[in-house]
Structures are given as C-alpha cells and as structure tokens.
Amino acid sequence: MPALTLTIDGRLVSSRAGETLLQVIRGNGIDLPTLCYLEGLSPRGGCRLCMVEVAGREKPQAACVTPAEEGMVVTTGSERLQRYRRQIVELLLAERNHTCSVCVVNGQCELQSLAARFGIDHVRYAYLSPRLPLDASHQRFGMDPGRCVLCARCVRTCDEVEGAHTLDLRGRGVRSCISIDLNEPWGRSETCTTCGKCVQSCPTGALFEKWTARGEKVRAPELIPRILAWRETHER
Amino acid sequence: MAETISINPVTRIEGHTRIDIFLDDSGAVTDARFLATSFRGFEAFCLGRSFWEMPGITARICGICPTSHALASALAGDRLLGLTVPPTAVKLRRVLALAQVIQSHALSFFFLSLPDFLPGLRDDPARRTLTELARSHPDLVTNAVQLRRFAHDITSRVGGGVVHPQWIIPGGMAEPLSEKVRQEFLSQIPGLIAIATATIAQFRQMSDGLRLAGRLGSLPTLYLGLTSAEKTLEYYEGELTVMDRKGTLLMAGAVPERFPELVAEELSSWNYLKGPYYAPLGAVDGSYRVGPLARLNLVARAGTRLADAELATFREQVGAGHPVHDVFFAHHARLIEIMAALERLQELLDDPTIIDRRVRSRAEVNQSKGIGVCEAPRGTLCHEYHVDENGLLERVNLVIATVQNSPAMNRAVREIARREIRGARLTEEVAQLLQIAIRAYDPCISCATHAAGSNGLVIRLVAPDGTVVQAFPT
Lengths: 236, 474
What we know:
Strand content of chain B: 15-25%
Helix content of chain A: 25-40%
Mean pLDDT of chain B: 88
Strand order of the largest sheet of chain A: 2-1-5-3-4
CATH superfamily of the largest domain in chain B: Cytochrome-c3 Hydrogenase, chain B
Number of domains of chain B: 3
Radius of gyration of chain B: 22 Å
CATH architecture of the largest domain in chain A: 2-Layer Sandwich
Largest sheet of chain B: 4 strands, mixed, barrel
Shape of chain A: globular
Mean pLDDT of chain A: 94
Low-confidence stretches of chain B: 450-455
CATH class of the largest domain in chain B: Mainly Alpha
CATH topology of the largest domain in chain B: Cytochrome-c3 Hydrogenase, chain B
Largest interface: A-B, 15 and 20 residues
Distance between the termini of chain A: 22 Å
Largest sheet of chain A: 5 strands, mixed
Oligomer: heterodimer
Structural class of chain A: alpha+beta
Number of helices of chain B: 15
Number of helices of chain A: 6
Number of strands of chain A: 9
Helix content of chain B: 40-55%
Number of strands of chain B: 16
C-alpha cells in the first residue's frame, strides 16, 4: 500500500492510502472530538464536530469522511474551528430536552462530556423545548427522542452490525426523529431482535435499558467494533 | 379612608410569598391572607415521563427537603412495581429521612428563626440577620453548621448526592452502605447529641424571655401525620393518624395509601396554594395541621430516651396542654425531633444488617396507581401517580406539607392582624410579629407551589377598593 505524506498542525506525518483524515489525525495522538462517528460503522459526517481546515479549501472539512491525500496541509484546532464546535454543541443542547440531572446517562454521556470539554456553562440560543413523547412500549428498552442528537449511530449499528435495519430516520432537519419500522411503537416492531446494540451505540440517554435510574445506564460503545472484529475472525 | 398595607418581602423563609391585610373604611382589619405568588407546574410537565425519573425530578421541587420528595416518589414507584423493598433498603431510606429532618430543622431554627429571637424582639431589623448572629453567637452558628454538615454527609454518602440524593429509586436503593461509612457516622453521633442537648437548654431559657407564647395565633385545629404502630415518631411509611382539637384520635392505624381519600382540597382564585381539609369533617371543621407540632401531638412517645424525657418537659409547659396548639412551640418541637432523629440514627446504624448488600428489588409495572406517603420535615407529604401500561405518567398529584398548613397560617395571620393592627398602620413590631408567626410554621413556598420570582415575603395592607395603602418592606 503506498504511503502518503501530509502536514497536520505543522507536523509532517505519514499515512496509508485509503485512510480518512480522522484516522490519520487520531493515529497521531490528536484527540479530535466526534459524536456521530463510531469505529466500525460507516462514517456519516453528520455532526460536523470533527471539522478541520485543509489548505486550499475554503470550507472546513469533516475529517471522518475526507480521504487523506498526498501533500495536504491540515489544521485541527484553529480559533474558528473551536468556535464552530462550541456552537454545534450549544445548538444540539438547545434543540432537544437535555436535562442531565435526571438523565439515565448522567456522568457518562458523550454530549455532556463534550459540553464540559468546550467549557459550555450556558447556551446562547433559545431552547426549542420540543414536546417529544417517550416510547416505553418495548419490553426491555426505552427511547426518549428528547435526548436524541440524531447521530444515527443506532441506525447504522442496527443495519450494518445486527442486519435488522429496524431503526431509521424520519422527518427533516431539526424535526427528524429515529423511527422504528414504519413509525411503529417499539414494542410492536416485527424486525427488532432485542439485541440491544443500538442502546450500546447511543452517545446520550436517548436509548436506554428500562428500569434504570439516574446515571445508571452502562455504556459500552466499544462493543460495536469488538463485535465486528470477532465476526471477521470467525469468518476467516 | 380605607387602606392597604403590604409587607414585601418577608425574608428568611423558603420561597416567595406575600401577606395581604384588608382594611375597612374605619381602618379595622377585615381579613388577612397568606399567599403563594408563584407558579411552577410540576404536576403538569411530569405527564408523559416515566415514573423511574420521578425521584430525580421531584427532588428538584425543593432544595431543603429533596430527600423527602425522592422518598415519597420512590414509595409511589414501589407500589407501581408491586414489590417488596429489601429490609436493608428500608433502613437506609429511614436513615435518609432522619438526616433530612435534622438538616431542615437546623436550618429553620438556627438560620431562619434565631435571628428574630437573638439579640431580642423589636431589635433593629438590620441586626436580625444570620451574619449578625454569627458575630454575636458564633457557638450557636457553629453548632448549626455541624448538625447540618452531618446530615448533608449522610445524604451524600448514603443517598448518593447532595443537594439531590440519587440512589433513592423505585425498588429500593441503588447502592448499599459500606462498613467504613457506617462507622464514620456512628462516631459523630455522641458529639451531636451533646449539641442538641445544649441547644434545647438554651432555647428553654430564651423562650421564657421572648413571651411569644399565645401571640402567634393559636386557634385549635386537627392534627394529621404518620406514627409508628407503637405511636412513636415515624417519618417513613408508618400509619396515618388523625387527632381532633381536644386530643382524641379520629383515626389511627390507617395505611398511608389512604391519604388521598382522607384529604380533600379546596381551590382558591387568589392563591396558587390549594386549601386541604380532613374530608370526613368538611372544609370548615376539617382544618388540620401537619409538621413537628402535629407529630409530637400525635405520638404517645418520641420513642427514644433523651427525646422522650424532653417531650415530657415539653408537654408540661405552662399553658401548653395537650394537644399543643400554640405554633410558637413548633420551635421546641423541632429541637426535640432533631434529638429523636440523632438517637434513631444511632439505633439504625448500630444494626449490623444495615450494610447488607441486597438493597434493590426488581419488577415490571404491575399496578396502574401508586401512592407514596412520608413525613417531610414540614409534615406529611404525598405523591400519587397514575401510569399507563408502560409506566408513563398519566396523572400526578403532589400534596405538600406547607399547603396543608396554609389554612392555619391564614387564620394565624388574620388573628394577629386583627389583634395588633391599630390605626390602619403597620408598625415595625407588628410586621415582625407576623413574620415570626409565619416562620414558626417554617413554610416552604417553593415546595408548596411545586418558584419563579424573587421577592421573598411581602406584607400588604389593602383598602376596600383594592388599593395598596402600605407595603412592608417599603
């Protein structure tokens, strides 16, 4: 495999052809923030937190979906990028009802830790406070769209890892929601295998095991790439 | 000319409130009302949420008694699940309920009311503050801080968080207690009992000098609260007991779940507080009180050695009788309850089974209605939830102690206003007396309205045409 050479934050680094900028950047020890990216799943470029500046390109690029190219000059943490990332997290917080104090994933939430990392102690945008009903119809799992960031990790996990494709997105823009089958209550889904991988892939408390109290959700998103690795070993 | 006087804000209470005093053309007091002026709407916005979240959400009704709300909520959740909570979890919840009593009563007595009593009544209002008290009586303030720190530590390390404990959950407790933490708390109790003993002695000395007994409104009412089956103090589960004005029990041994059928609520157009009454006797005769005074009236004994000795003294007090109707003695009652709580904590923590690891039962939703009743520091607290088949809330009713005491507070304010207001003017002395009376009830308005706003307590004198002629503070 041919090697590429590129410059990241003023440092010369090498990568293999076919790698994304996110892989190269993280592979070189830079902790680039992501939310919709989950190792093992196809990248989506949805959350835009991994945006970087590439010399010669006017718009910032989402590193998770940008292939590394020979001679690229990349900046990962400019003042502009930091401002954008903070704005993105603030907008996510304003869009839905993220009441950390009573959430099942309080203390382990990816959105919460990003907010803490960017020093977000208040949100400058008006809260939309949408009325989004809880789906507690499934025997084991619950879904609170009020805590959803629309990263679609659950959708990709259900499709690409479990192969059920029970979950999908419906609606447009800020009003999009995760949909079960053809917009059925979860408890009535005929395709859901009750495997629970969607719950493990969810970065927030939007998907949770029922009968968990505040801060009790145990998260193991690393389970997803591990399952894929086991499968690969098995198939070989 | 007819007039209106306002006291605004009255400080050193929990939440925001106002007293309106209505005058006729001759300047005589026609009526007085104690009003909650804010709206919060917990009963509305919790609809559609899961009952699993309710201990966390309802604990945020109040920063003083979050544990009580979490306990009532978890009790209601236990009923929805239809399970039996492990005995050790019940003990841990009792520990938390007792810590709540100590924390809240110490706040009410030392920080909210003592600045009225020390250095003395009718003193310069600017000197009636906690900071002034800390300067003149540092020992008392230190004692208060020690009591409250102990209670907060319990909430934090047994309940999983201060201000809001998060381990109180439907089915039991999320975490067991460790031996190390148990020993740490046990070692602190003797010193705190000494503090409680000294405080009671100081209060007895002080209270004779204050001559407030009989001046704060002492209309007889019924009393309602939980007691143990042995008629001793009980804050968690227990039996519902109701006593009439003469001290005869109207009801004893009732299961706490019967609370909603025994208490009816009258809605008013002028107040965000509902007016509850003992349903079997109707709105006029059914006026009752809850809280420390009610609990000490209802029990035969406190149930612990030192608290029982002090309860005997309390009941012998000149002019007090049984039941004790004079709300001034609620201060004394709070101190006795602090003592009893410390002694009970000692008993509970001495029990080696308190560190048992099994503290949680699990079940699915088995009932559509759950009622949880406990004794909050200010009195009986009831959470009633109705859920759908998936455990999502369809109806929420919260009955708060301060709401239950509000008709009595109204009567007290009216009684004092009629007796003390002369020439349609509110003097500094009368304004202070009104505030002392309200503080004796230790009302928690944020709880009662389940607050937006920031005005403390306001007293207004109102003319027949509705104009406000005087407001306090100006």
